[in-house]
Amino acid sequence: MILSDKSLRGLVKWFQKNRREMSWRNTRDPYKIWISEVMLQQTQVATVEPYYERFLKAFPTVHDLAKAPLDKVLKVWEGCGYYARARNLHQAAKQIVEQGGELPKSSDELRKLKGIGPYTSAAIASIAFGEAVAVLDGNVERVLARVLCERRVISDSRVKKRLHAVASELVKKAVALRLSSGDFNEAMMELGATVCKPREALCKKCPLKSECRAISSLKDVTALPKKAPAKKVPHYDIGAAIVRKDGRILITQRPEHGMLGGLWEFPGGKQERGETLEECVRREMKEELAIDVEVNSLFQSVNHAYTHFKITLHCFDCKHTGGKLKLIHCSDAKWVRPHELSRFAFPKADRVIIEKLQLTQGE
User: Fold this and answer.
1) From the candidates 21, 37, 265, 278, which is the catalytic residue?
2) If 0-12 CB within 10 Å is exposed, 13-18 middle and 19+ buried, where does residue 199 land?
């Protein structure tokens, strides 16, 4: 066994004494735990807190979430990022209501819900229902890689399999010691987030320091976990249009399935090789909406980074000059006044454009 009974008890005791205060740690309501765990995917705790409160205020129960229109769900989620999470929550809520209105209690059953994978199902099942199933997120992987002194690349499938097997063995042992599986999983995550950090390891404060192989074997434990060389992040220039007509502005809705699905945006697309941004905007208006526009001055450029690529959104003032609008590559389109833009859910880069639009319009 990689950790002794004493270390496991010490870890859980450390967590109960040092855990950070978070709204979702004051409940055992499976619905609220589910919402928090989904929001915490790829998003920092400090960022999640206000969105969590806002989301639960808008949708206090799974029934409220299930019956809400997707547009409202996306608007409440706006700014939290990774919008597929919101769409999946909405779809899963409908599944839950159709099945009786209660979240499944086992990790296997939870994984049948839209958007719930191994990590989220394990977190909900262990924290809300006490199932002895291991959570393996980035924080837990880092703790285990250092405790084991695992020198192989952390993304290697064989390493992932080993870490999961060790985590599963540990959570079962914790339960055998009459420790809470939820407390054990949260303790491992908390340890990685606050002590066994990526670029700083506070080893003197670690409850597992006496059994950590990295401490005894390496001069610098932050050399682990070993990561594969970073890939170059691609960058794309996006040409977009603020199409004006009779005091209104044209906005389009992205198809529900796909990146940023269901969100509204200023229509446009990627600049192709050999074309100017102005040519890009004219082409996109024709291909996406079957309309012709006169491209005038650049209104604003906004840089934004997604997980695997970066963009610069170049928004141009445009005038509709011809063509009857058709929904070719979008779900919907509306002509709205600048002050009405706040009613719709937009990606972050577009919201920067909206702020300037409303400022210049005095709205």
Assistant:
1) 37
2) exposed
DSSP three-state, residue 44: coil
- CATH for 235-361 (3.40.640.10, 3.50.30.60, 3.90.79.10, 3.10.450.60): 3.90.79.10
Gap between the Cα atoms of 28 and 30, Å rounded? 6
Q: In the annotation, is 37 catalytic?
A: yes
Positions of CATH 1.10.340.30 in the chain: 5-223
Please check the confidence at residue 283 and state whether its pLDDT lies above 60. Answer: yes
| pLDDT value of position 2 | 84
pTM of the model: 0.90
pLDDT digits (tens, 9 = 90+) for 126-143: 999 999 999 999 999 999
Rounded Cα distance, 112 and 281, in Å: 42
Tokens matching residue 116: 């719930």
- C-alpha to C-alpha distances, 343 to 76, 284, 287, 331, nearest whole angstrom: 10, 25, 27, 17
Whole-number Å distance between alpha carbons of 328 and 257: 15
